[in-house]
Amino acid sequence: MQALISLSTVSPSSPAVARSDRAVGSFSTNASKPSSFRFCGLRREALGLSITKPHGSSRVALSQRRFYKKFSASLKDNGVPSKGFDYDLVIIGAGVGGHGAALHAVEKGLKTAIIEGDVVGGTCVNRGCVPSKALLAVSGRMRELQSEHHLKALGLQVSAAGYDRQGVADHANNLATKIRNNLTNSLKALGVDILSGVGTILGPQKVKYGKVGFSDQVITAKDIIIATGSVPFVPKGIEVDGKTVITSDHALKLEFVPDWIAIVGSGYIGLEFSDVYTALGSEVTFIEALDQLMPGFDPEIGKLAQRVLINPRKIDYHTGVFASKITPAKDGKPVIIELIDAKTKEPRDTLEVDAALIATGRAPYTKGLGLENINVETQRGFVPVDERMRVIDKNGNLVPHVYCIGDANGKMMLAHAASAQGISVVEQVSGKDHVLNHLSIPAACFTHPEISFVGLTEPQARERAEKEGYEISIAKTSFKANTKALAENEGEGLAKLIYRPDNGEILGVHIFGIHAADLIHEASNAITLGTRIQDIKFAVHAHPTLSEVLDELFKLAKGASGSCVSSHKRSAQVQQHERCSNSRQHCKKNEITILSILVSGSHVVFDYLLMVIKLCNVVIKFLFNLINI
């Protein structure tokens, strides 16, 4: 399940819960097959293997066997640590962020260990993104089967659709287990040491791990990454019993489907669960502290999404209110929710429902890390970092060799953002400076239809433009103009582009419609590479595909012309094109030079042959005269 997207917007008033103390111990795993490097994306060329076969094929086979033997040995040893350390890199937390960092570290040749006090995969795999997508897959199928109008338009007739609650719950649990095993196996295959227990920083480049009540193990590392993630945030006055008043952790188990459920918060988590519950037959009531639903989205997209995702469904809502107190159901009484005005704090209403889901965001998971041992104080629970994820102490100084990624630093609370931050840190500790552009990281809400975006919203873009002194322009296109969307009978949707007309810079792209979460990556990659509108307009898209929504969107952009590119930073693609063009020109010059040498050389050879022929003619005449005498 996606968490908060805005920068450091969670402001928990209560401390994050302590990390789980599971089984203590450590185990190292050996990789027996180099092919397991597929997990970290290493290519064949990176392993030093030639794709051509010389004549001595047996010699090549022998060489490859020697290589594999040597390579397997290196995996078994998980690299050689820097002198004086047990590891080059120790990562505290084996969620998506820690896992991504570990795999990239191995690719860079770093001896790596990862400490986990719970289970590999963290929140995303076990209690978030992964199981929620299983539930949403079910809700999507149910909506299709329940929509008589939709099926009739396609010429289909289906009897009444039903579901087995336990079967749906098992599907979500089985998927989480499968992905967790995949992540664990990938770490094992690469020889990453998985150390079980709670990790605590003892001081510079020193960490202990273990279970409370048992002896701790102490290890040293040249660099340390904190990747402990987050937990559901529960405001004061709300009593969670895990049965009728629940968080997303409990809801993903789908232990029952209530007739009427109140969802506190209308962000990503609340929206996705409303999609699931209404598809399975529940009535939903949103409780939102701000004046409008879906406050984290571009206002225009949010307005359209409300018309499609909220209004036609069995959903009502209260905005501008706080749930000041929630009491679980007991003794035959329902869940009682007391609402107060968000501004005046005056009582507004009391609701009695079957269940309540608390979807008010997430709190950083940073208790017990030993931050005091490196003079670091959290800010609302988050570990303060700079743009390179380097930890900052309470005096504003950088803490050497300590980094923090993911939800624990609060920069962008998304699983893939944590992974990107981890990879960026590994680049740095490997000697290559790298700064991650967070405005290029996409976000998605997997409702039906989906919502996705990257970059700035329109209000954010206008505020920045006014501050920096430039104009912005907006381009929009509808899914109703897309052949593939109409073929699917899914024409409800909008794509929106925010850009600078003076230089073609893409500031933001927002999509609401079928498969929006997949479509957003073309825009995300364009921002990452610095590609301008005037360049991406020439990209070719297959027809008929949903990708043409983006094609049409970019082509609608006005004012960005190629003539303005020279006055701004050129895109990486243009620079690459120039390098290739220069390379081709250089090769062409070399070809002409070689040809001229060959031509001039042929003249020399011809003259030499002519001289030999003349000499032979003289010799023949001499012999002829000698015979006559």
From TrEMBL:
<keyword id="KW-0809">Transit peptide</keyword>
<comment type="similarity">
    <text>Belongs to the class-I pyridine nucleotide-disulfide oxidoreductase family.</text>
</comment>
<dbReference type="InterPro" id="IPR050151">
    <property type="entry name" value="Class-I_Pyr_Nuc-Dis_Oxidored"/>
</dbReference>
<dbReference type="GO" id="GO:0050660">
    <property type="term" value="F:flavin adenine dinucleotide binding"/>
</dbReference>
<keyword id="KW-1015">Disulfide bond</keyword>
<dbReference type="GO" id="GO:0045252">
    <property type="term" value="C:oxoglutarate dehydrogenase complex"/>
</dbReference>
<dbReference type="GO" id="GO:0005739">
    <property type="term" value="C:mitochondrion"/>
</dbReference>
<dbReference type="GO" id="GO:0006103">
    <property type="term" value="P:2-oxoglutarate metabolic process"/>
</dbReference>
<dbReference type="Pfam" id="PF07992">
    <property type="entry name" value="Pyr_redox_2"/>
</dbReference>
<keyword id="KW-0934">Plastid</keyword>
<comment type="subunit">
    <text>Homodimer. Part of the plastidial pyruvate dehydrogenase complex (PDC) containing multiple copies of three enzymatic components: pyruvate dehydrogenase (E1), dihydrolipoamide acetyltransferase (E2) and lipoamide dehydrogenase (E3).</text>
</comment>
<keyword id="KW-0560">Oxidoreductase</keyword>
<keyword id="KW-0520">NAD</keyword>
<dbReference type="InterPro" id="IPR023753">
    <property type="entry name" value="FAD/NAD-binding_dom"/>
</dbReference>
<dbReference type="GO" id="GO:0046685">
    <property type="term" value="P:response to arsenic-containing substance"/>
</dbReference>
<dbReference type="InterPro" id="IPR036188">
    <property type="entry name" value="FAD/NAD-bd_sf"/>
</dbReference>
<keyword id="KW-0150">Chloroplast</keyword>
<keyword id="KW-0285">Flavoprotein</keyword>
<dbReference type="InterPro" id="IPR016156">
    <property type="entry name" value="FAD/NAD-linked_Rdtase_dimer_sf"/>
</dbReference>
<keyword id="KW-0274">FAD</keyword>
<keyword id="KW-0676">Redox-active center</keyword>
<dbReference type="InterPro" id="IPR012999">
    <property type="entry name" value="Pyr_OxRdtase_I_AS"/>
</dbReference>
<protein>
    <recommendedName>
        <fullName>dihydrolipoyl dehydrogenase</fullName>
        <ecNumber>1.8.1.4</ecNumber>
    </recommendedName>
</protein>
<dbReference type="GO" id="GO:0009570">
    <property type="term" value="C:chloroplast stroma"/>
</dbReference>
<dbReference type="Pfam" id="PF02852">
    <property type="entry name" value="Pyr_redox_dim"/>
</dbReference>
<dbReference type="InterPro" id="IPR004099">
    <property type="entry name" value="Pyr_nucl-diS_OxRdtase_dimer"/>
</dbReference>
<comment type="function">
    <text>Lipoamide dehydrogenase is a component of the plastidial pyruvate dehydrogenase complex (PDC).</text>
</comment>
<dbReference type="GO" id="GO:0004148">
    <property type="term" value="F:dihydrolipoyl dehydrogenase (NADH) activity"/>
</dbReference>
